[in-house]
């Protein structure tokens, strides 16, 4: 271990290597740990407790024991504790960003942005905790009255990915806590440090023991832990963000206990540039949507459809903009694209590019690993892409923009909708009639019109088709963690 993370932090006690169960820092019962790798230089930066299924059971028991008290304090009291947690996260933003960049690789400015974005869910749902209200339907039976109550679901589980190590956790835990639920979190193998630092701040905010538990594990143990969490009859809700493939497994594992499910799965976003688009704005939007987090986001543009009339102008400007992206270690100033998470990710990018080139795509820029080595890859643009190429239907999760020319609105909407996924979509146009029609016709949970960035805490995030079930963020995100109870009273 060469980098001493503690020396990089203003508050070294935010660096944790133990798991967090029932308000205490714990080792795995086997005593085993697993290494955390910095994807920028392949250094082992931490050895984190490698929990197993029996440890996961202890976390479920802790969450279950904490539930009666947490649900019975008022929403206002929960809001106060969550607000303190939110303040502490913002006060420690720089340290949280350093931990994230070291374990995940994204540039420090992006990490700081994610910490603020992640915290916004805690602030928003702290406010919402005070506003959970049922309804009183007007009676149609004269001797009876009706009430509909909203009550917390119970013990919840969150399984989260490595690409947003902070926000994918807060987007789940904040509505769950606000609703009065307790929660067990299983962060991704590659990025547990951000999750553990959030737990340390939760203790300081006074969040009671057992309300939030973090089970850290490597990929092998994650499978066994996943089975335990899904099989437990105590767990009433599972929220998963990750691949569609794993989402399907978890959904089937939850079937025997009929859990409520929230699934935020893969995406394959179309990004359409119509002939009346503001080309400069479309270039800016495409850069933000495609290359953020080295192209490792579920809402990344994965197919860029450009009308034939503006194709060449767009490609020229887009290519110039892409060539200004600075690849490097996310800890270095001025870097706008970090490494890919691991070698498997790099191999997938190379496979998509090789497949496209072998079927007639043209390389506009990039197309090879960066001279920096490791898992750094040059930001890439491919033109002349056609629908038979892998990149048009498999999630790339890398910095590759495939450009596909089109001629009519009907044609491009059909192409855009021809996907098993339905998470984010984008298009650029200045024609209000076209904006309405295309926004309505796209089979996606989210549509960015003249905008390459979509997500924030006040709007519902989520997909249709095999991109998932349910929504996170906004008032709708809270409903995922509440059950309706109908009460009928005879007078
Ligand atoms: P992943 O391989 O599906 O893993 C996600 C999480 O599931 C990790 O914590 C992983 O643990 C765990 N896991 C894997 N197999 C499991 C099993 N059999 N049982 C229980 N847990 C299991 O996804 P990823 O590679 O981390 O993330 C990339 C994917 O997430 C992409 O498809 C992306 O589109 C999607 N994503 C979606 C959204 C959204 O909001 N829709 C947001 C971000 C990412 P280990 O790490 O220990 O294996």
Descriptive overview:
The protein is of the alpha/beta class. The protein is 39% helix and 20% strand. The chain contains 15 helices and 19 strands. It has helices at 5-8, 53-72, 75-91, 93-104, 108-128, 167-179, 192-205, 219-231, 244-254, 279-291, 311-322, 343-358, 409-417, 432-441, 474-479; strands spanning 19-21, 24-26, 33-38, 43-49, 144-152, 155-159, 182-186, 212-214, 235-241, 260-264, 269-273, 301-307, 362-365, 380-383, 400-406, 424-428, 446-449, 468-469, 482-490. The strands form five sheets. Strands 13-14-15-12-11-16-17 form a seven-stranded mixed β-sheet, with helices on both faces. Strands 8-7-6-9-10-18 form a six-stranded mixed β-sheet, sandwiched between helices. Helix 9 links the parallel strand 9 and strand 10 (260-264). The longest helix is centred in the N-terminal third of the chain and has 21 residues, at 108-128. The mean pLDDT is 98. The protein binds NADP nicotinamide-adenine-dinucleotide phosphate.
Number of helices: 15
The N- and C-terminal alpha carbons lie at a distance of: 71 Å
How are the strands ordered across the major sheet? 13-14-15-12-11-16-17
Shape: globular
Major β-sheet, in short?
Answer: 7 strands, mixed
The gyration radius over C-alpha positions equals 23 Å
Helix content: 25-40%
Taken as a percent bin, the fraction of beta residues is 15-25%
Provide a quick synopsis of the model:
This protein is α/β, with parallel strands linked by helices and about 500 residues long. The protein is about 40% helix and about 20% strand. Helix 14 (about 430-440) links the parallel strand 16 and strand 17.
């Amino acid at each position: 271990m060469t980098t001493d993370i503690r020396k990089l932090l203003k508050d070294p006690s935010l660096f944790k290597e133990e798991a967090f169960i029932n308000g205490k820092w714990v080792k795995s019962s086997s005593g085993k740990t697993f290494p955390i790798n910095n994807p920028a230089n392949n250094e082992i930066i931490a050895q984190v407790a490698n929990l197993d299924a029996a440890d996961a059971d202890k976390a479920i028991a802790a969450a279950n024991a904490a539930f009666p008290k947490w649900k019975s304090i008022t929403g206002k009291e929960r809001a106060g504790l969550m607000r303190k947690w939110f303040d502490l996260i913002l006060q420690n933003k720089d340290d949280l960003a350093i931990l994230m960049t070291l374990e995940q690789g994204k540039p420090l400015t992006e990490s700081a942005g994610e910490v603020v974005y992640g915290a916004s869910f805690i602030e928003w749902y702290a406010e919402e905790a005070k506003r959970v209200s049922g309804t009183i339907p007007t009676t149609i039976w004269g001797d009876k009255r009706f009430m509909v109550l909203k009550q917390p679901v119970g013990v919840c589980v969150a399984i989260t990915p490595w690409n947003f190590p902070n926000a994918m956790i807060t987007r789940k835990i904040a509505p769950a806590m606000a609703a009065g639920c307790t929660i067990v979190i299983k962060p991704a193998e590659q990025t547990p440090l951000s999750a553990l630092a959030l737990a340390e701040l939760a203790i300081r905010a006074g969040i009671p023991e057992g309300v939030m538990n973090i089970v850290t594990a490597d990929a092998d143990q994650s499978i066994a832990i996943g089975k335990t969490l899904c099989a437990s009859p105590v767990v009433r809700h599972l929220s998963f963000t990750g691949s569609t493939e794993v989402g399907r497994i978890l959904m089937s594992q939850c079937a025997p206990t009929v859990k409520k499910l929230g699934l935020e799965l893969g995406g394959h976003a179309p990004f359409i540039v119509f002939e009346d688009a503001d080309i400069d704005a479309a270039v800016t939007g495409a850069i933000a949507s495609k290359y953020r987090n080295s192209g490792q986001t579920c809402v990344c543009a994965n197919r860029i459809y450009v009308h034939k009339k503006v194709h060449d102008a767009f490609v020229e400007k887009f290519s110039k903009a892409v060539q200004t992206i600075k690849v490097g270690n996310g800890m270095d100033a001025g870097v706008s694209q970090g490494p890919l998470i691991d070698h498997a990710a790099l191999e997938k990018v190379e496979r998509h590019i090789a497949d496209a080139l072998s079927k007639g795509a043209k390389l506009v820029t990039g197309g090879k690993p960066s001279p920096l080595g490791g898992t750094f890859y040059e930001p890439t643009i491919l033109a002349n892409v056609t629908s038979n190429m892998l990149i048009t239907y498999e999630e790339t999760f890398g910095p590759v923009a495939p450009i596909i020319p089109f001629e009519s609105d009907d044609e491009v909407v059909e192409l855009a909708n021809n996907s098993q996924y339905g998470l984010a979509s984008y298009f650029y146009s200045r024609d209000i009639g076209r904006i309405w029609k295309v926004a309505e016709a796209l089979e996606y949970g989210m549509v960015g019109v003249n905008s390459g960035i979509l997500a924030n805490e006040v709007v519902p995030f989520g997909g249709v088709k095999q991109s998932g079930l349910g929504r996170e963020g906004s008032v709708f995100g809270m409903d995922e963690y509440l059950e309706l109870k109908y009460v009928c009273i005879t007078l």
